[in-house]
Amino acid sequence: MAKLLTAIGLMSGTSMDGIDVALLRTDGETIVQRGPSAGYAYDARFRDRLKQGLDDARSIGRREERPGTLSDLERDLTLSHVDAVRDFLRENKILPENVDVIGFHGQTVLHRPDEGLTVQIGDGRLLARETGIDVVHDMRANDMAHGGQGAPLIPAYHAALARGLSGRREIAAPVAFVNIGGISNLTFIGAGDALVAYDSGPGNTLIDQWVEAHAGIPYDQGGMIASEGSVLPELADRYLSHPFFAAEKRRSLDRNDFAPPTGNEASLDDGARTLAYVTAAAIMRSARHLPVAPKTFVICGGGRLNPVIMRDLSTLAEAEGSRVLAAEALGLNGDSMEAEAWAYLAVRSLNGLPLTYPGTTGVSRPVSGGRLAPRPADGLHAHGGSK
Ligand SMILES: Nc1ncnc2c1ncn2[C@@H]1O[C@H](COP(=O)(O)OP(=O)(O)OP(=O)(O)O)[C@@H](O)[C@H]1O
Ligand SMILES: CC(=O)N[C@H]1[C@@H]2OC[C@@H](O2)[C@@H](O)[C@@H]1O[C@H](C)C(=O)O
């Protein structure tokens, strides 16, 4: 049996709202003991820098390139992660020497699976040096090098959670986990733990972009704006008739694959309402490509906190005989699940276990991935003045 390791996962997702941190004890296989978690929000200025970074990244041709502001941004993003780890350790009274590994996602600034290009900025060596903890990073690249979409990576962790839930009365099989982040993705766990997973559509990004442009706020908290509006069927159809949903082959999404409506297409409320519906309907439309309809959808990610999305999802799922549950209804944490996944995947990477499978990313065979940046042999700040 593989050894139990203590791992911290760090996720800065496509919503660019902040860094999620979670601690796990795991063997990278069946044993998952969830520990504390926390979120550290970016301020508005740093979010603007990240948005600029996405623009600068458009000209990247090779994944090592860092045009425009990207080098500075990569350093500062990494230093924000250093601060997040230090705060997290202090708040939870954990010593760095008691953590075996950090799984570091970094920030996706460009994702073009059709060109075999995915870029996550984040300096694993700097993080290892500043925290004194081994870091596994760049976990999407090897999947792409083997013909995969480079995303989603969370399905291996969803499968581990599902094993822990089997036999629970609330859950009728088959189960699909749905992560509603900036983009949404789903993981279907079939008979014998067979995994089918893919990105399912725009998640919160369109809603965030819409309310930011028209109300100057970063997101529609509690779906308050959407709940005042009505669904505009033509606008919704325009999104839902995107070739992404009907395509034979599932592909992973970049944040910019769907654009928000233009200003005069809807009032603030109707726009938010329509986009919330689109988020829910996109998930159900994508679920039609699964081998069989899930009986239970378990929802995680920030979108589960928008009751308008959740109501639409429940209505659409019930019409197909399925049930929708928020992760919390099963004792899971819908905010920290991605960070937990990065901790779990880091341990799998150390043990040479697959991170992705043909059924999850379209990779040619199950492959491991991630690069190890070891902590300095002589402890923290090995780059300091004594050398
Ligand atoms: N209380 C809330 N009410 C409504 N929406 C919320 C609430 N809290 C978070 N959200 C939405 O969830 C988003 C963040 O979700 P999450 O942290 O899961 O995304 P992410 O991890 O950045 O994205 P991805 O999974 O695509 O990488 C916010 O941008 C916002 O749109
Ligand atoms: C390239 C990239 O960063 N993709 C993210 C994004 O956000 C959600 C969806 O699109 C998913 O495919 C992926 O993140 C999750 C955590 C994953 O890889 O499982």
Walk me through this protein's architecture.
Helix content is 34%, strand content 20%. By secondary structure, it is of the alpha/beta class. The strands form three sheets. Strands 3-2-1-4-7-13 form a six-stranded mixed beta sheet, sandwiched between helices. A hairpin with a 4-residue loop joins β5 (107-112) and β6. α6 runs antiparallel to α9 (268-287). The protein is globular. The structure holds adenosine-5'-triphosphate and ligand AH0. Ligand AH0 binds at residues 13-14, 108, 111, 118, 150-154, 181-183, 185, 199, 252-253, 338. Belongs to the anhydro-N-acetylmuramic acid kinase family. It is an enzyme of class 2 (transferase). This is Anhydro-N-acetylmuramic acid kinase.
Summarize the structure.
The protein is α/β, with parallel strands linked by helices.
Question: What features would you highlight for this structure?
Answer:
carbohydrate metabolism; Nucleotidyltransferase, domain 5; 387 residues; disordered C terminus; binds adenosine-5'-triphosphate; Anhydro-N-acetylmuramic acid kinase; transferase; 2 domains; ATPase_NBD; 12 helices
